[in-house]
Design a protein that fits this description.
This protein is of the alpha+beta class. It is 35% helix and 21% strand. Strand 2 and strand 3 form a beta hairpin. It is globular.
Length: 333
């Protein structure tokens, strides 16, 4: 099968996307597919086996006009592919825009469709959907980046501490845990640099858990234990900074409930293929859903391969299943 792997792009998560894309491309070649790696920023082809090394810097890509992405669907490797494997993270890749472009071109692709991608990327809209369907989520408030937070936002969240983050960004980019009222506005301004809407959310103390959803199956729960601080960008992607436990040490009735909530959260948003649902578990044992990631990372430290190994699935098995789901049950007609 001819597969074009879209990676890189122009989001703040470009570097991680290149690592994901390189791993996916390698797995697809091992599985016997004819693979071409493509930088989604403008359709530039990347060298087989050296995608990450052959990529341009974020600064170079950032100077490209946004319209350069529109020509992506006319790149022969993309136009002639049987399936496009999307290995992008963050804006202009995970938010429905690339998905819409591919659909307009009549091209089949992996992962969630346009609406599900957009809903999952927008944390405010996700929370509204969760609340409507009874998926527990932390209390929250949201403001435009041009506004300023005040005491009403803290009241909506039940007081300090709160989590402040861009509504449409991933990998904990510009995320802050605010414990003092004086620190709220600086954290808000930092998050506002990365999007038009800033989410202010109740901080849930306790354990950090994540559920991988593969098709209609919830895989074993992974517990995330940073050695210092919280699970920020550095702790996510620096080897040795975080310990992981899979399956998480949880009594089965509770573990089953969290897996069920993970599956329901993904289904509420209309996700297909592979997704990952993040939770906080406080001491009272009531899980709280934070967000759904529609294109979770597939790097050496990523959580999806870890959860898959717990049920005997290899990295290549996950990639093959993702391709299969796109071919059989994907969002395109």
């Amino acid at each position: 099968m001819k597969v074009a792997v879209l990676m890189g792009g122009r989001s703040a998560e470009r570097e991680i996307s290149l690592k994901t894309g390189q791993g996916v491309a390698r797995a697809l070649r091992t599985l016997g597919h004819d693979v071409t790696s493509v930088d989604a920023a403008d359709g530039a082809l990347l060298p087989a086996g050296g995608e990450e090394a052959g990529a341009r810097t974020a600064a170079v890509v950032g100077r490209l006009p946004l319209r350069a992405q529109v020509g992506l669907v006319d790149v022969p490797a993309v136009r002639e592919a049987d399936i496009v494997y999307i290995a992008l993270h963050g804006t202009f890749g995970e938010d429905g825009r690339i998905q819409a472009l591919l659909e307009l071109a009549g091209q089949r692709y992996t992962g969630s469709g346009v609406l599900a991608s957009a809903l999952a990327m927008d944390k405010v809209m996700s929370k509204r959907m969760f609340m409507h369907d009874g998926v527990p989520t932390p209390r929250w408030s949201a403001r435009r980046a041009s506004e300023r937070p005040d005491a009403r936002d803290l009241e909506a969240c039940g007081g300090l501490p709160v989590v402040v983050k861009p509504s449409e960004e991933g990998s904990s980019v510009a995320l802050s845990i605010v414990e003092r009222a004086a620190d709220l506005e600086p954290a808000f301004l930092e998050a506002a640099l990365h999007g038009d809407v800033v989410l202010i959310e109740e901080y849930i103390p306790g354990r950090e858990l994540t559920v991988t959803v593969l098709g209609d199956e919830a895989l074993p729960i992974v517990e995330i234990c940073p050695k210092q601080g919280f699970y920020d960008y550095e702790n996510k992607y620096t080897k040795g900074r975080t310990d992981y436990h899979c399956p998480a040490d949880l009594p089965e009735p509770l573990a089953g409930r969290i897996r069920e909530l993970g599956l329901r959260a993904a289904q509420v948003l209309g996700c297909t293929g592979v997704s990952r649902v993040d939770f906080r578990l406080p001491p009272n044992g009531e899980p709280s859903c934070l967000e759904v990631n529609t294109i979770p990372g597939m790097t050496p430290t990523s959580l999806v391969p870890m959860a898959a190994r717990a049920v005997g699935l290899s990295y290549e098995d996950v990639v093959a299943r993702t391709l299969e789901l796109a071919a059989v049950t994907g969002p395109q007609s």
